[in-house]
Amino acid sequence: MGRIKFTFYALLFLVFGCNFGYALSDNEMLLPPANDDCAGATPLTVNPTEICASGTTATFAQATASALGATCTAQNGADVWYEFTATSTAHTIALSNFSGTPQPIVIVLYEGDCTGLTMLSCSQNNVLNASGLNIGDTYKVKIYFNTTSPSLTNTFLVCVTTPPPPSNNNQTECLITTVNYDFELPNLTWSTYPTFVNHNVVQGWRTTASDQTMEFWQEPNYENVPAYSGDQFIELNANVVSGVYQDYDTPQPTVFTYGFAHRGRQGTDTCQLLAGPPGGTLTVVATVSTGNTAWSYNTGTYTVPAGQTVTRFMLQSVSSVGGASVGNFLDAISFTANNGIISPNPFYMDCGELVASLEAAGTGTWSAHNSNPSTVTFSDPTSNNVDVSGFSVQGSYYFDWTTEYCTSTIEVSYTGPYPLDPVVTDITYCQGQTAVPIDIPVDQPGYTMLYYLNGTPYSNPTPDTSVVGSVTYYVIQESDAGCQTPAYPLVVTVNPGQDPVTDFTLPAALCTSDGTVTPTTGTDFTTGGTFSAPVEVVIDPNTGEIDLFASTPGTYDITYSVEEDIANCLVAGSSTVSFTINAAPVLMPVTPLELCDDATNDGFAEFDLAPAIAEALNNQTGYTVTIHLSQTDAEANLNSQSQPLFTNIIAGGQPIYMRVVEDGTTTDCYTIEEIQLFVHPLPTIPSPITNYVQCDQTDPDANDGIEEF
């Protein structure tokens, strides 16, 4: 604002009748600010980072509406002009530190001079993200009040900052990001109670509330609700049920990724995320209900339909436990999209890599710069994922991905063919073993395999096996064009001789009737050795299995031996275990016991088993004999029966089993012999018996009573 002091006389006032706002004495006349029109645009400092270290205070006293420069709204109550020279392809113009009555403000960006301005973009949320700028060009900025009757006492800070490039070093003009996603602006004076702010002084966000009020909370606060991130968050319903939104330019189909933190205040509150064209129908993208004990973070994607050139994302209250003006806390709201190149930039092709696989987002076309070292081929110039091939000359190649509203460029560094990585296998020797020269085959004639040990080059080195330890050679394959692979380590290890593990165990004693037994080997047992035993023991030399039945009873030493194996770094070693084979009693076959039934003729009789036992023992002494009804009971030594007198329990006889154990042994070697018992029934005479009568007729004359029957 310019203040120029003039001295006038009353006569001059009467002649011209002009109202300049002065009295008869010395007076001050208020003139429009110097940057009231395009020609007087105030230069803005371009901050090299996102931090606004240097800004300019805007004043509107006596400002007027300019005729120059198109606007994006119908109303222009007054405007001021600025200009800046781009130092990057993207800059951010932001307004902050507002004073005076909150009013809707519009920022418009132009290219060209004041005689021919072309509007590039505009913003109605106090932040304009400018992209696609030419470094070194000067751009004009018009800031105006979007109202017919503005208050011109307002002031605010205008700042131009430089956003950093994405992590992959691609251009920022194809990126779409959320302004003030964390509600950290405006930077409010701390209060334990919420602060009600007109949305016209908020960066990025606007509300649908009729009173244009947004409710900001800070931490700590009287309800002890922490921010999800940062220090500030908002309550969706300030005084009335409402929504908050941001608009994004989407001149082509775009895939947005969204995320927002939500929390209830006095219970479980519900809000909806909607998307669609401003002024049109917004569709529900997501509905979220969250209690008041913790934040929920909700994510998803939204695809902009074709023809929706501007997309509005709005979070709107559905219900809240506390009523229309209470509930639905929000924080960390982000809507992001990338319609540019996603691949790392520069994109380095390894030696020998012939195809560059590049990726971009959005809908666009790939093209190559004419200055590239050689022509290339695109697998599909309109595909988001394209394979670029046909490189023939080493150097840097540049490719553009051009969408409807932005172009991003990637540098591809082609280094030429390179040999395959050498096939490196570590080598192990035993101390004193004869080594052979290292000779890894090359991939093609003319290639060379290079070996390095402690930085010294060698040609087919022969390792030294006299010293125990490891040395590392590094192997590089070099093509005939000098393209090298990375250095790959080849470790040569010389191991000392190791004692074999020969420990094994056997039961202290077993019976010949146990069949077979196999040694139990120790942990990390060294295989490949030999089991041995005296000739009386039948043993498998490889597995150590002993045939007990075929072996002679007695106590023997069983030995496992491993011979020296220098190739496997083994010294000779052995282990011996003492082992006893006890004989089971040798019994003679028993003649079946047979009895005639008594007068009852019921099939049961009392047998004297003593003869059968004596027959089986065959005069052997020192044995304990038990009688059992079944083979199973005999083997388990269960349910022994009375003896030597035994009455069969199955009519007609049955088998019983004699278990014989040698007295005084700890292994209880036993033999089981079967005894068959038979009870024969008594013969029966038919009753009654018919008398046999015959005449004395052999010698009738004698009549001696003697006749042949």
Automatic annotation (TrEMBL):
Species per Swiss-Prot/TrEMBL record: Flavobacterium rhizophilum
Protein name: T9SS-like galactose binding domain-containing protein
Pfam families documented for this protein: GBD_T9SS_assoc
Domain T9SS-like galactose binding: start-end pairs: 34-148
InterPro entries assigned to the protein according to its UniProt record, in alphabetical order: GBD_T9SS_assoc
